[in-house]
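Fill in residues.
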């Protein structure tokens, strides 16, 4: 893995009213790595992801992606950067009135000048890269299983051949077999497309299997960023509670059943 930082976050402060979510938070994401983000409920994981996507604005600090400061970027700069990343939100955010093929074609229609038949060919390629059968292409999201919807969301997220992929709880709500299959798919895409991946997750299996490093959020900061084998050995109380204590299991169950 090269040490080129593709995302550099420095001195980030985030407030909702008086409530401080992040204070003086720093984080680097290196090209080619899969970085997991974990932390207790309310520790600011989703907010951090939204800030990287320029959907939420922090009070202070710097977020550089591909070398561009995104916090005060112009709309044009943002549009050119957004083309280079893909996002899979927890709810998939597929358009329910469009077929799978139309959903995956959508970003290509929005962001390229390619003709309709090329767009359809590229969309079919992404659908098969996401491990979906071609006869799913003409189905609507509601006709697909939960696992297939995730794959559909992923197919759309990689439509524009991004360098960077953001995933929010990609395996939440999936049964263990389907989740394991999705982990395989992420690893596969990461190596074939040379992706850098930032993934918020509570799924311990995914963390062990897919990530190179994991950032642990707590005390308004990124407290640790380590590969899993090192992270779980940190003597810190919050880490121990999260990964091994009864509270860790409660947090996990809360997400499996309640989120
Ligand atoms: N739009 C918002 N308005 C007010 N408070 C918010 C908003 N979004 C998040 N928060 C608060 O910020 C904190 C961090 O939220 P979030 O980033 O969703 O945490 P996590 O994803 O780690 O569970 C929580 O206390 C949450 O209630
Ligand atoms: Mg969240």
């Amino acid at each position: 893995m090269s040490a080129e930082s593709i995302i550099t976050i420095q001195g980030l402060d985030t407030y909702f009213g008086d409530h401080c979510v992040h204070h003086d938070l720093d984080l680097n994401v290196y090209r080619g790595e899969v970085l997991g983000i974990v932390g207790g409920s309310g520790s600011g994981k989703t907010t951090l992801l939204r800030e990287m996507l320029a959907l939420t604005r922090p009070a202070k600090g710097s977020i550089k992606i591909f070398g561009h400061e995104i916090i005060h970027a112009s709309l044009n700069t943002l549009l050119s950067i957004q083309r280079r990343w893909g996002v899979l939100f927890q709810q998939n955010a597929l358009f329910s009135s469009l077929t799978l093929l139309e959903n995956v074609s959508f970003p290509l229609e929005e962001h390229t000048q390619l003709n309709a038949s090329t767009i359809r060919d590229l969309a079919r390629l992404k659908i098969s890269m996401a491990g979906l059968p071609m006869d799913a292409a003409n189905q609507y999201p509601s006709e697909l299983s939960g696992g297939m919807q995730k794959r559909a969301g992923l197919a759309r997220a990689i439509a524009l051949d991004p360098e960077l992929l953001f995933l929010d709880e990609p395996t939440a709500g999936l049964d263990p077999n389907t989740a394991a299959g999705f982990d395989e798919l992420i690893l596969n895409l990461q190596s074939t497309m040379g992706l850098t991946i930032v993934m918020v997750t509570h799924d311990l299996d995914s963390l062990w299997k897919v990530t190179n490093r994991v950032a642990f959020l707590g005390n308004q900061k990124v407290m640790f960023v380590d590969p899993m084998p090192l992270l779980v050995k940190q003597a810190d109380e919050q880490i121990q509670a999260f990964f091994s204590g009864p509270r860790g299991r409660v947090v996990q169950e809360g997400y499996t059943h309640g989120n």
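The pocket of adenosine-5'-diphosphate (ligand 1) is lined by residues 16, 21, 39, 41-47 (CB under 6 Å).
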